[in-house]
């Protein structure tokens, strides 16, 4: 399945680029992260979804990469004001990963190798809006960009797309992740310019 959002929200009628407010067009692929790139080995990698009742579902690399995957072409928007259009990814839809999981949770804390966390409402991970991506431009996702696998939630500012993701904790009540505790927005919609708490 191909999910194509470039040209849908990203461009104006006459073909000019329409970016979210306050963003500029970036043609490179900047690396942004709060600390060093953690060593993550696919031999020991696991991805775990834990519900609010403590039930957990875990995949190792072999199981994870055997799941149905999708190609995604999408624009991405970093809160430091760069946007990159038409990026190409391959990954497993959160719809696939969540399909057999029973939950009443409304929120998710994504957890990464290295300790990074970020909070996202659960509905924002459903209905074809989010993936665990493991490939970029047809190649395995580079460690600097979150490889072996990262969360990809392109309709929110890119800090929500946790690199080196290892788990999602489903929560009944919202909690703040790493950047959110430091003043960044709990939701982070680039089109509404929700950069900081209170925006
Ligand atoms: N684990 C982890 N994920 C992270 C970050 C981080 O510091 N650690 N930074 C976030 C921020 S602020 C951005 S803009 C993107 C940058 O992704 P990139 O380095 O692939 O461009 O990753 C997000 N995911
Ligand atoms: Mo960012």
From TrEMBL:
<dbReference type="InterPro" id="IPR036374">
    <property type="entry name" value="OxRdtase_Mopterin-bd_sf"/>
</dbReference>
<feature type="domain" description="Oxidoreductase molybdopterin-binding">
    <location>
        <begin position="35"/>
        <end position="179"/>
    </location>
</feature>
<protein>
    <submittedName>
        <fullName>Sulfite oxidase-like oxidoreductase</fullName>
    </submittedName>
</protein>
<dbReference type="InterPro" id="IPR000572">
    <property type="entry name" value="OxRdtase_Mopterin-bd_dom"/>
</dbReference>
<dbReference type="Pfam" id="PF00174">
    <property type="entry name" value="Oxidored_molyb"/>
</dbReference>
């Amino acid at each position: 399945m191909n999910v194509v959002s470039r040209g849908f929200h990203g461009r104006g009628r006459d073909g000019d680029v329409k970016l979210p407010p306050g963003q500029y067009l970036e043609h490179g692929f900047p690396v942004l992260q709060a600390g060093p790139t953690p060593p993550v080995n696919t031999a020991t990698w696991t991805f775990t979804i834990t519900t609010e009742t403590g039930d957990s579902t875990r995949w190792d690399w072999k199981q994870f990469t055997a799941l149905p995957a999708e190609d995604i072409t999408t624009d991405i928007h970093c809160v430091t004001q760069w946007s990159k259009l038409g990026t190409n990814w391959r990954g497993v839809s959160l719809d696939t990963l969540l399909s057999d999981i029973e939950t009443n949770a409304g929120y998710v804390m994504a957890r990464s190798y290295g300790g990074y966390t970020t909070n996202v409402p659960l509905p924002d991970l459903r209905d074809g809006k989010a993936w665990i991506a493991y490939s970029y431009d047809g190649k395995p996702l580079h460690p600097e960009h979150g490889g072996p696998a990262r969360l990809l939630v392109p309709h929110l500012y890119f800090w929500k797309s946790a690199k080196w993701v290892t788990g999602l904790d489903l929560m009944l009540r919202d909690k703040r992740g790493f950047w959110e505790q430091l003043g960044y927005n709990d939701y982070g919609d680039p089109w509404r310019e929700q950069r900081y708490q209170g925006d």
